[in-house]
Design a protein that fits this description.
This protein is an alpha+beta fold. The chain is built from four helices and nine strands. It has a single domain (58-217), classed as Cathepsin D, subunit A, domain 1. The strands form two sheets. A six-stranded mixed β-barrel has the order 1-2-6-3-5-4. A three-stranded antiparallel β-sheet has the order 7-8-9, with no helix packed on it.
């Protein structure tokens, strides 16, 4: 079997859309000193136990695909991917959301790993995103990189989203957990949707390979 969609590193403009910004971020890390007296966050401890497997079909090798609320729209087929350095929203998804006054901030840094080749994003947009259900619901402003490319997913949440929400994901337990005050919120993955999305990725890649082979033969 070929490389799975969730097995590859993906990236884009995360520390700034210029070489100067990225170098400045590197210098900040180099000069950072860890203090023994630093104030640690007082969030609840997040853990996963055997009880989290209720409702999960095992054994499995499914990606974690969830539904989240973006700009007041419940958006399905969101792939939670710790291998991605950016959050992605695909153009088709944004078009269906039909958000009025939607303006993109231009990006000059290509994104890679989301298609078979590097692609220049359409831009970047900040949107309110919520996870969980009341009363264990949290809302943050999330920066999405917009990509105009076909995908089985509506969007991808990468490491920046995990940082914003302090989220911990377990693909094995098909669950995403995050602190909500002194409580812990959660979101279940949908294994059937994850498998349909993966099948769609495989079919699309197979189609492109066959087209390339036919071109070479002709």
């Amino acid at each position: 079997m070929g490389e799975r969609e969730d097995d590859r590193a993906k990236g884009g403009a995360i520390d700034g859309d210029s070489g100067r910004a990225r170098k400045a971020n590197g210098r900040r890390m180099k000069n950072f000193e860890i203090s023994k007296e630093m104030n640690l966050p007082q969030d609840r401890v997040i853990s996963f136990g055997p009880e989290e497997l209720r409702g999960v079909v095992t054994p499995h090798n499914d990606a974690l695909v969830v539904t989240v609320t973006i700009a007041n729209y419940d958006v399905t087929r969101i792939f939670f991917d710790s291998g991605s350095s950016v959050n992605i929203l695909f153009k088709g998804t944004l078009d269906e959301m039909n958000i009025e006054g939607c303006k993109l901030e231009l990006i000059s840094t290509p994104s890679y790993g989301f298609t078979d080749h590097d692609i220049l994003p359409m831009g970047k947009i900040d949107l309110l995103m919520s996870m969980g259900s009341d009363p264990k619901r949290v809302t943050k402003m999330v920066s999405f990189t917009m990509i105009d490319a076909p995908s089985s997913y509506n969007g991808i949440l990468g490491r920046p989203a995990m940082k914003y929400f302090k989220a911990i994901a377990s693909t094995y337990h098909q669950k995403l957990k995050f602190p909500v005050g002194i409580e812990v919120g959660f979101r279940h993955g949908d294994q059937m949707v994850a498998r349909r999305c993966y099948d769609g990725v495989v079919r699309e890649k197979t189609k492109r390979v066959r087209m390339e082979v036919n071109i070479i033969r002709s």
